[in-house]
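hey so i finally got around to running the thing on that chain from the lab meeting. sorry it took forever, my laptop kept dying and i had to restart like 3 times. anyway pasting the input first so we r on the same page abt which one it is
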Amino acid sequence: MTKVHEDRPVLPTQQDEVAAAGSEFLGGPMGRYARLGGHWLTPVRVVALVALGMFALGMVQKLPCYDWAWFRGAGSQYTHSCYSDIPHLFSVRGFADGLTPYFDRLPGDMEYLEYPVLTGLFMEVASWLTPGGGSIQHREQMYWMVNAGMLMACTAVIAVCVVRTHRRRPWDALLFALAPAFALTATINWDLLAIALTAAGMLMWSRGRTLLFGVFIGLATAAKLYPVLLLGVLFVLCWRAGKWRAFGSAVLGAAVSWLVVNLPVMIFAWDGWKKFYTFSQERPIDFGSVWLLISQRSGNPLEDANTYATGLTLLLCAGIGVLTLTAPRRPRFAQLAFLVVAAFILANKVYSPQYVLWLIPLAALARPRWRDFLIWQAGEVVYFFGIWLYLAYTTSGDKHQGLPAEGYQLAIAAHLLTTLYLCAVVVRDILLPERDVVRRDGSDDPSGGVLDGAEDVFVLSDAARAPQDAAPSAGQRVEWGTAARD
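ok and heres what got predicted. didnt touch it at all, straight out
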């Protein structure tokens, strides 16, 4: 499939009415021949600087906790909505005492660190860089600050990778950089490490480097479990396109890199290594999940939540697989990546506020439309404040300071419904590919690597048997600069 105007970047202000309206405070949409700050302010640099600026704003939002609220009981950090796992786990997971993750047994019920190996290494390196003098409060502050600096580096990596993944749509990465939920949740936990590795993997796939894609996905899976789902996405895409060699290369790279990181700990500290997996399996339903909402509303503790969550996840993934093999055009990699990670989140037993970070870069690539993105972000911001106010309510005793259970249930519903809304819009784009803004210039799959423009060899529906293409002909393609509105 030939593409038009390959050298010209798509300007969102000429395709997206929300982006155009938002640009007014900078002087309005860019013209066709406008230049952005000469040669220095390239899209990569602008997006990276904006992302780092939003990250810094998120750090400022945590100031009340940094100054005092982390250390004055649970209530204050919840009422100020500035909670972070990082300073607390410095002490309770043995880093303050110099214990080695996975090898040294922890005091209390947890026994071992409950994080995947690469995240544990990240936490340990941060503890090495944390100054040793002063009170434990000061050391916890410094540990959070060191981690924030390392996570800021991950933010820069994510921004650069998202910009470069869609060559002609670099400005779509501003959706990630300007996401309110990104700023609010970036320093709650260590998720940005896995997200940076996943973003690097998707960039490698978009450039046809299938082995390197696998290497990065294997490393990302060694930091967080969800990136392995992208291999399932590639399985059905490569099945439809007949690209089994590329899929095999990706799986090989992922398996080798995951084993390189995990095998030493598996051999020498098996009990510590398996803690993450047993903890994930055994933990009950928890905050933010649809199962907690059902449990609270029905009064049923849902003791079989593991079975329900696993069954729903498998059902949703099967549905995504069928969608992939029956859609009129092969879905884009980013679309399916977003859907499968969203399915995992929606069906999970727990939804921590920082899990939204997993989806933000994928959403920027899957559905780069500001209206839909901001609707989803509004629901996530409601949930962010809802969970902290609910925890404030549950820890305030007779004061009842915060949000009662009924209000928290509405916050969970806001998260669930807005995430489902964005999923529905992505599914609509797959079923009606002419509505997909990324494909309106004649592109097939800019982040698809070897799948971009490939012919189908296996489909399940008559609608998908028509030539690859239901793609518009060259004469029908929307020219660069033409407004494309829903």
